[in-house]
Amino acid sequence: MTSFAISGVFSAAATPINADLSPDHGLLAKHCQRLLDEGCHGVALLGTTGEANSFSLGERKAMLESVIKAGVAADRLMPGTGVAAIPETIELTRHALSLGIDKVVMLPPFYYKGVSDDGLFDAYSRILEGVADDRLKVVLYHIPQVSGISLSVELVGHLIEAFPKTVVGIKESKGDLANMQALLKAYPGFAVFPGADPLMLPLLREGGAGCITATSNLIADSLRTVFDGHADAAAAAKVEAAQARINAWRNLSNSYAQIPTIKAMVGLKHGEKAWQRLRPPLVGLGESEIAALRPQLERLP
Amino acid sequence: MTSFAISGVFSAAATPINADLSPDHGLLAKHCQRLLDEGCHGVALLGTTGEANSFSLGERKAMLESVIKAGVAADRLMPGTGVAAIPETIELTRHALSLGIDKVVMLPPFYYKGVSDDGLFDAYSRILEGVADDRLKVVLYHIPQVSGISLSVELVGHLIEAFPKTVVGIKESKGDLANMQALLKAYPGFAVFPGADPLMLPLLREGGAGCITATSNLIADSLRTVFDGHADAAAAAKVEAAQARINAWRNLSNSYAQIPTIKAMVGLKHGEKAWQRLRPPLVGLGESEIAALRPQLERLP
What we know:
homodimer, alpha/beta, TIM Barrel, four-stranded parallel β-sheet, three-stranded parallel β-sheet, 47% helix, Aldolase_TIM (chains A, B)
């Protein structure tokens, strides 16, 4: 198996929210520890599923600090730090490093659309030169259906070439297997993480590095089973069954708007109310939708 | 003519940038004063043309403070304050109010796409309730080709109904005349500002409130001529000629990427180098493009 700077099962963790719409620090830390106990190698909190860009810089920093203060090891965290303005991406990344976190998932600046590869290269370069810390390992974040920004295979190559010790992976949430295969072929040793659960096993078999996905909020144990057993012929039946279970949970989470549904499912599973709330502009499921979800959840494998 | 809470010619001001990519405070203040001297009723700085979302909150606040300290009247400024996270939009809006600025242009939260009208209503409501200052007048900002967020006619109506003294206008940068007409028809007295120069005169004739556009960085006098004379039959020829001049300048600014080209044209017109620079991910025109632009600029009416 290829050796990657970062590999494994990372949970795109959701964020529990208090009645006043502030993040619920205590429950977030509890959830992060639970994800690790259930088998995740790490927690990619403060991503798209985590509603990161709906929180202020101060709120984001406070969340990281409180999770670490609650006892979650910094080296198990891989937060999102990419925002629209370069100085703030630098600020969030340096803050994470100051807490002992050395891995981040980094969106490109996402306000302007149709920007050039040169402009994106320049943006990432200025961020990494601004952070100026050789501990840092960056997972680029490709989610054009939300960010509106495409990271081309060529751009990724230019960044790897310019920052070989830092730009070590990509979270590929476009859901385009061909694009992931092109990245794997072009840049051996570069860690490609699918952002969609059904692609975890197919990509692991072609040299993927693991996954950074949302269904791990619910059934991390099955994702770990797939990761640990994917190259072991004797485990094939168990691995296929785990991937099938993952897909079933993911299909239900996609039957309503994905982020509110994932959160509602976590809330139902653990009896925790704070998962029903979302920061606007996202909207939580209504009581009737949650009532309809409950029996479907109970029938899942 | 209808009476609006806000009306007139507002410049979507560009931002001059130093060699280290920091904003050039002195030249920004000089430019704002120049725009007012040339005929603008106000300066809508820190919008899309102003690269606002490429600057940190701290940089944005410092720009406003320095423009006012340089002597530009606060009541002539209408900055953008809408960012992705509600608490930061509240923070920027309260900061503007603290400087005596009572008019802002406000983007909706723009990270998530495909969000519902309910989610956007909730977001704007929480922002306005969080600002909690009855001096505030908000111009909503509709620029779906950049923000990725559509503000429907129905949503605008719900916001006007809920915040009648505050939600007083919209900057309609989608460039869709039919949408502007629908807004004018549905909400008499609500100030509709086209974000595209060629639509200024057509919309003024149907009850528009003025414009918030980029060509005013170059020829504000002509925009003022159109605004002042649009209802005066005796001025028709002068007004048509001014609108034709505006359109010619705008066509040239759109011949390359618009924001870099507007900035390059301002730089050529005034012999100021700082306009050639942009914050990544935007990229300034190259020397050869600027060389090609110069004779075209000199031939404009």
